[in-house]
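SEVERITY: medium
COMPONENT: batch folding queue
REPORTER: lab tech (J.R.)

DESCRIPTION
The queue accepted two submissions in a row. Attaching both inputs and their returned structure tokens so the on-call engineer can compare them side by side.

ATTACHMENT 1
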Amino acid sequence: MKKFIFISLLTFLSLYIFITPSMADSRYLTEGLYGASDLNLSQNATHTVQNNSDTEYAFIMIFDYNQLTQQYMLLKPESKEYILVPIELGYKLLVVTNDSITIN
């Protein structure tokens, strides 16, 4: 009986060791210019941006590989999540803030 309990417990624990979370990783960005390849964002996927600061505004611009503006946003403090344009390889993100923003 002890052997059965031990084997059952060992099997149960070994099956749940390799569970990976399915949620996307959040990236916290401070002020700067970022390339899409630097952020490891999925190409042509839907991403959201949010300003978590309770006092600071955030400004974000997305440029394509021809340096044309694809999206421009001014995020208020404690903003809700906003959907970004699909980000392709070669795109650049300009972030201006005194705090940080979150990209999912």
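ATTACHMENT 2
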Amino acid sequence: MSLIQNAILVAVTACLVAFLPGYFQKVPPIVIHGEVAKGFEPVLAKFRENFENGADSRYGGSALAVYHKGKKIIDIWGGFADVESNIEWRQDTTTVVFSATKGIASICIAMLVDRGLLDYDKPVSLYWPEFAQKGKGKVTVRQLMEHMAGLTLMAPPGMTIDTLQDVARGGELMAAAEPQWEIDGKKHGYHALTFGPLTNELLRRVDPQHRTMGQFFAEEIAEPFGVDFHIGLPFDQNYRVARLIEGKIGRLWGLDDPLIRQMTLHFLTTPYFKNIQENQGAIMNTLMALNSPYLRAVEVPSVNGIGTARAIAKVYGILAAGGVDPETKLKLLSKERINAFMNASTVTQDEVLGFDLSHTLGMVTTKYVMNGSVMGFGHEGAGGQKAWADPKNKIGFSFVSNALSPYTHNGDHRSQELTENLYECLRKK
């Protein structure tokens, strides 16, 4: 047999091995549960349609929750938490929300500002003296929260899962880290992972009880407000967590997204992304790493928050309604802090991501409807996770999925179309 024939045989065999198992795999049924308030039935119909037309993977699952004026109006879920084990997505299924965790972390920091324990315009080193190393003495809390500190490496030298388990040790490594650019209060670049250990240590330093962010969130938000969300998941809660999968069809669709093409070109032509890749440490090399119970247990307030769509929507719903929970009458944040999230900083190019972006005190301030008619604040996460508040219309929104799409920054068709349907329903009321 010739060399060419051998090569063809190898190629054909590889294709058969890659695609035949999926070809003969039975397509899972569409299973949808939950409820919507009267007048919001079109949102439920769109949620189902996403599974029918392939926008949402039949091999994964998703959940959507919406609060309006402090009351839950949409709470629906569907698909599979683990299709290989035939586990459907259930009412109490939780999932990793990746960078949507940053929004929750930003709320925790804002609570400390509300209590007079932090000032956004004071240097971080005032609260955390060791942070002044390597020319970071004048970096303010605001600049840290708005990704201006230049600490964009995925992980500074020496940072591993083990060091992240020790919040104080993680803080030591971040304090010793050198910025990737001269801090000028204008240049910003996405602190994808380091935002977590930075905010965790800052909170620990100023909290009178010196709690970690996971502990602070549990005691100050999760328990009093009845929110099913964790930063650092207890091992006995792993049975409820959806297994992350790649949304393979969605990955192909992503090639037509101009923002993804822009990001790819930027990654190839600038040094920051290369530096991030070369310094990611022994933490996580793919999103699927967060299928590990050991990594889920570590407090990383930038990437590994785990909870339900219902929980996240409730938090943002309270903020959208003015900061006080209508059910418990407890205050989450002052109106001053909520309004501050809406005061968008100048939209300029992110040095890491390569597209225009505005971070405001840790939140992404952006347009959440494709026609640009609605303003809000919140944070998205890898794979299509979405969470935001719209104070004007008093909406708290969260969409989560374990079928990870490739889209970024408002590009996921699933949540965008659900959002459009939601506001169309609101206009008719």
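NOTES FROM REPORTER
The radius of gyration is 22 Å.
No errors were logged for either attachment.
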